[in-house]
């Protein structure tokens, strides 16, 4: 079977003037060469979704990055290396809020099969949709040789060095803790006290409240002032400040998931500061906040390899646990309510997930 019946129109969350979004009827895009069409079963909200709406807002585009669903159509010509078939259960990401014919918050999404992973039978669509943005951000930030370049499981770093994963209860932090532990690091992390038990269950050896005014001293004490690798999974100005102060003598490498604060490098000359951006995975240049980012083929190769050869297996074996699902009723119509919930800072160690079809 090469396709299932697909209607000509679908519902989608579409950006409007004045930085809002509404559910509208739009054409279902037909997949071209090296593209597939997925019937969307679930979507999850990421901060990037509301940030695109609030700060970027390309009017008339479909919102949403993370989707999971069933392949219903295959484009005419496909790279045999990424062969998928109609009926496959998949999850993946698209660059939401940029294209008029492609976004996750819709009944159907046109997707790149190379940036799509097969969901194991043991993982529900609700769980699967919590994974892609968070885990791929970590893979890029932690293991790409141009970034932190850490040892990657099944290899293990010798002598269990400490790593600071700031913001362990964010979705990104949740996966970063697990991946760092698998690589043999001892993880020190930060979260609200209600999430400390979870942080330990994910593999953190030490966890501190990020609101504690003595947090830097506590990190230094528990690690013997040996921190030289930090992933800031929150990356606001206040967290960057804590992270840069937490390095031991000799400095090291700080990886951010948002833009760096303008003065942060000046605080420690012995710390290399970098930020990572998942959107480079699509293999084409992209614009954000007026700046053009070039595509780097190496980023795409790294993540494709992980999606094909590692991620489904690690989920199946329970080496990686998905983020807790917070199922939000109401489908596409209620997604902007979810944005507000997230903007108000009410998301805690969970993913807001919506069932779509
Ligand atoms: N560069 C990229 O490609 C990329 C990709 C994905 C995400 N991101 C960025 O990464 C950040 C995290 O995204 P996410 O989806 O993982 O976030 P999220 O899950 O929505 O974050 C919610 C969590 O933030 C924590 N938090 C709130 N204030 C904090 C603080 N001051 N310090 C530490 N933690 C704090 C809360 O912890 P408690 O509940 O424990 O208080 C809560 O669990 C966002 O800024 C996002 O835009 C970037």
Mind explaining what this structure looks like?
With 357 residues, the chain is of the alpha/beta class. It has two domains: 9-132 and 287-355, Quinone Oxidoreductase, Chain A, domain 1 (Alpha-Beta Complex), CATH 3.90.180.10; 148-275, 3-Layer(aba) Sandwich (Rossmann fold), CATH 3.40.50.720. The protein has eleven helices and 17 strands. The strands form four sheets. Strands 3, 4, 5, 6, 7, 16 and 17 form a seven-stranded mixed β-sheet that branches. It has a six-stranded parallel β-sheet with strand order 10-9-8-11-12-13, sandwiched between helices. The chain has a two-stranded antiparallel sheet with strand order 1-2. Helix 3 packs across helix 4 (171-182). The longest helix is centred in the C-terminal third of the chain and has 13 residues, at 297-309. The protein is globular and about 60 Å long. The mean pLDDT is 96. NADP nicotinamide-adenine-dinucleotide phosphate (NAP) binds next to helix 1, helix 3, helix 4 and helix 7. The site of NADP nicotinamide-adenine-dinucleotide phosphate has 30 residues, from helix 1, helix 3, helix 4 and helix 7.
General shape: globular
CATH superfamily of the largest domain: Medium-chain alcohol dehydrogenases, catalytic domain
Helix-strand string: EEEHEEEEHHEHEHEHEHEHEEEHHEHE
Unique ligands: NADP nicotinamide-adenine-dinucleotide phosphate
Q: Uncertain runs with pLDDT below 50, 5 residues or more?
A: none
Q: How many helices does DSSP assign?
A: 11
Compact description:
The chain is an alpha/beta fold and about 350 residues long. It is about 25% helix and about 25% strand. It folds into two domains: about 10-130 and about 285-355, Medium-chain alcohol dehydrogenases, catalytic domain (Quinone Oxidoreductase, Chain A, domain 1); about 150-275, Rossmann fold (3-Layer(aba) Sandwich).
């Amino acid at each position: 079977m090469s396709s299932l019946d697909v209607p000509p129109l679908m519902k989608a969350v579409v950006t409007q003037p004045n930085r809002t979004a509404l559910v509208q009827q739009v054409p279902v895009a037909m997949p071209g060469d090296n593209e597939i069409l997925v019937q969307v079963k679930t979507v999850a909200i990421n901060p990037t979704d509301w940030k695109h709406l609030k700060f970027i807002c390309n009017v008339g585009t479909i919102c949403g990055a993370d989707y999971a669903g069933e392949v219903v159509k295959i484009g005419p010509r496909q790279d045999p290396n990424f062969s998928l078939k109609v009926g496959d259960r998949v999850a993946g990401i698209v660059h939401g809020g940029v294209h008029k014919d492609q976004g996750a918050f819709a009944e159907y999404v046109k997707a790149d099969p190379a940036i799509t992973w097969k969901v194991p039978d043991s993982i529900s669509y609700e769980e699967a949709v919590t994974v892609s943005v968070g885990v791929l951000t970590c893979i890029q930030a932690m293991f790409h040789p141009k970034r932190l370049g850490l040892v990657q499981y099944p290899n293990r770093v010798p002598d269990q060095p400490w790593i600071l994963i700031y913001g362990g209860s964010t979705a990104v932090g949740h996966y970063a803790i697990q991946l760092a532990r698998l690589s043999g690091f001892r993880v020190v992390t930060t979260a609200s006290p209600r999430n400390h038990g979870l942080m330990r269950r994910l593999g953190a050896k030490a966890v501190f409240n990020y609101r504690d005014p003595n947090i830097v001293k506590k990190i230094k004490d528990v690690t013997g002032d040996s921190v030289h690798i930090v992933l800031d999974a929150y990356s606001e100005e206040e967290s960057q400040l804590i992270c840069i102060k937490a390095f031991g003598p000799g400095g090291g490498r700080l990886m951010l998931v948002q833009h760096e604060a303008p003065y942060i490098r000046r605080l420690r000359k012995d710390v290399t500061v970098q930020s990572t951006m998942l959107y480079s995975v699509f293999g084409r240049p992209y614009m954000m906040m007026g700046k053009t980012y070039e595509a780097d083929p190496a980023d795409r190769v790294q993540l494709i390899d992980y999606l094909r050869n590692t991620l489904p297996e690690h989920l199946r074996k329970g080496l990686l646990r998905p983020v807790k699902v917070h199922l939000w009723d109401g489908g596409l119509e209620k997604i902007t309510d979810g944005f507000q919930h997230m903007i108000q800072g009410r998301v805690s160690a969970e993913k807001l997930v919506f069932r779509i079809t």
